[in-house]
Design a protein that fits this description.
CATH superfamily: MetI-like
Shape: elongated
CATH topology: MetI-like fold
Number of helices: 11
CATH architecture: Orthogonal Bundle
CATH class: Mainly Alpha
Helix content: over 70%
Number of strands: 0
Order of helices and strands: HHHHHHHHHHH
Strand content: under 5%
Largest sheet: none
Structural class: mainly alpha
Number of domains: 1
Length: about 280
């Protein structure tokens, strides 16, 4: 299936992309940590030990304990499940909706093209976090609302990529030949246009996952996305900000987790761009 879409990656070429390999290693570590959270940490993410509040690093609690005595390592690892799920979900929604609108604008043209491009430009005119905050006011608090808000703010990038890709692909000889012999529009898009525009969309999706993780963490820090006692990285930072000097480890490790996850997806996006672009010199 992937080979039909022209996305079969040449593994030797990908291995020469140091950024891509580093991104894969980081993301695998984060995913494995999320999957093995229960085995790697001794207590559950919600188990308090009030007599051990803000204890530092130890063999039993390598990341220390938070302001309620909960194991910080366990909460960081369980928070990976929430943050990765929200990031992937937001990127998937933005990719599907944005690419669909962009392909419709590029294929139909005319007033529909002007309308979609105009709306995308309006969304781009707002700062991403500000737009997400406005949408959160309409949708309410929670991770689901945050996912929808962040995906909506990320859609214009996919709209523009898909539209430009469709306009270019329509001028290719194989597409012109397919239209000349009467290939139906649906098959024309799936078999002849989508393989040309999908690689940059995949790269943008990888970058979008990292951005979504960062933005949802920011919304959680403001108290709008994840709600206590959910072990989401941004919420963990805001819950421990009162102990920034007394117990800095409470904020340090969720912050490092956000940094590593975002870095991993950004590096993977760069690596995929190198692999999928035949003009790239690795």
């Amino acid at each position: 299936m992937l080979s039909d879409l022209g996305l079969t990656l040449r593994r030797p070429r990908f291995r020469r992309s140091r950024r891509g390999v580093a991104g894969v290693v980081i993301i695998l570590c984060v995913f494995l940590g999320a999957l093995g959270a229960d085995a790697l940490a001794p207590d559950g993410p919600y188990t308090p030990h009030l007599l051990e509040r803000r204890h530092g690093l130890s063999l039993r609690h390598p990341f220390g304990q938070d302001e309620l005595g909960r194991d910080n390592l366990n909460r960081v690892l369980h928070g990976a499940r929430l943050s990765l799920g929200v990031g992937v979900g937001a990127a998937a929604l933005a990719l599907i909706a944005g690419a669909s609108l962009g392909m419709a604008a590029g294929m139909v043209g005319g007033w529909l093209d002007s309308l979609i491009v105009g709306l995308a430009d309006m969304v781009l005119a707002f700062p991403t976090l500000l737009l997400a905050l406005v949408l959160m006011m309409l949708l309410g608090r929670g991770l689901v609302s945050a996912t929808v808000a962040v995906s909506f703010a990320a859609m214009p990038a996919f709209v523009r990529l898909a539209r430009i890709g469709v306009i270019r692909a329509r001028q290719q000889e194989h597409v012109l030949a397919a239209r000349a012999v009467g290939v139906p529009p649906g098959r024309l898009i799936l078999r002849h246009i989508l393989p040309d525009i999908l690689p940059p969309l995949i790269v943008q999706a990888m970058l979008c996952i990292g951005t979504a993780i960062l933005e949802v963490a920011g919304l959680s820090f403001l108290g709008l996305a994840a709600q206590p006692p959910a072990p989401e990285w941004g919420a963990m930072i805001t819950q421990g900000r009162g102990a920034v000097f007394a117990a800095p480890h409470i904020l340090l490790f969720p912050g490092l987790a956000i940094m590593l996850a975002v870095l991993g997806f950004n590096l993977l996006g760069d690596g995929l761009r190198d692999v999928l672009d035949p003009r790239a010199d690795l």
